[in-house]
Amino acid sequence: MKTDTIVILSQRELDKMRKAGRLAAQLLQHLESMVKPGVNTLQLNDEAERWTQAHGAKSAPLGYKGFPKSICTSVNEVVCHGIPNAKQILRDGDIINIDVTPIVDGYHGDTSKTFLVGSPSPKAKKLVEVTQECLRRGIAEVKPGARIGDIGAAIQEYAESQGFSVVRDFVGHGVSNIFHTAPDIPHYGTRGKGKRLRPGMVFTIEPMINEGTWEVEVLSDGWTALTRDRKLSAQFEHTLAVTEDGVEILTQAEGDFSP
Ligand code: MF3
Ligand code: CO
Ligand code: CO
Fold it and tell me: Does residue 224 form part of some domain?
């Protein structure tokens, strides 16, 4: 349930978020090893569900507001919320965002990356690199006293300077024992605007960056969001905690220092 109060997590809750975040990162790493031409997105989904259960966790997307699968798989012009499907076979040159959210001991780790299938075009590769850099620049703004608008401004400035556009219809969000809660974290905006960040706040930054127009369209399945012009879209997401002196990336596997 979407509440409009921003919660400050206790150390005990932050520890649970760390565990969920670490498992989410490991799941994404595991799925990355399956991304190749010929694999279909239902295979990615089914392996995600199996792996999640084997690690004693639950898949938050499954049944969430009626979402039918365990992960989101968003290929090429799909902006987000793509539904895994056996008929959707990855081809050389595709880009695919895989978005996972395991629940561990009641807490959610929400993370996604866009992967290259074989050898996409230089334009597609640039979009993916710029989107990852957008997430890095958004994260770099996070510290106590900064404002939510600083995050979106940093992302929008960089994306647009590279000739790309920022999706408006989907935003980052508070996340804890609730999947989507306050605050909203837009990936566009104005420096100095919005609420101030405080230690113990936990939220995602998950920029969706488009090659052409930022406008999206949702298919009649009620979920699949795609670019109106059918040009490419990429996304990266981390779950973050505001610390006393900066930021902690919760959805990072050990030894992985990306983005
Ligand atoms: N993981 C997505 C996010 O980043 C939400 C997916 S909701 C679902 O917020 F129902 F599509 F799974
Ligand atoms: Co997500
Ligand atoms: Co999210």
Answer: yes
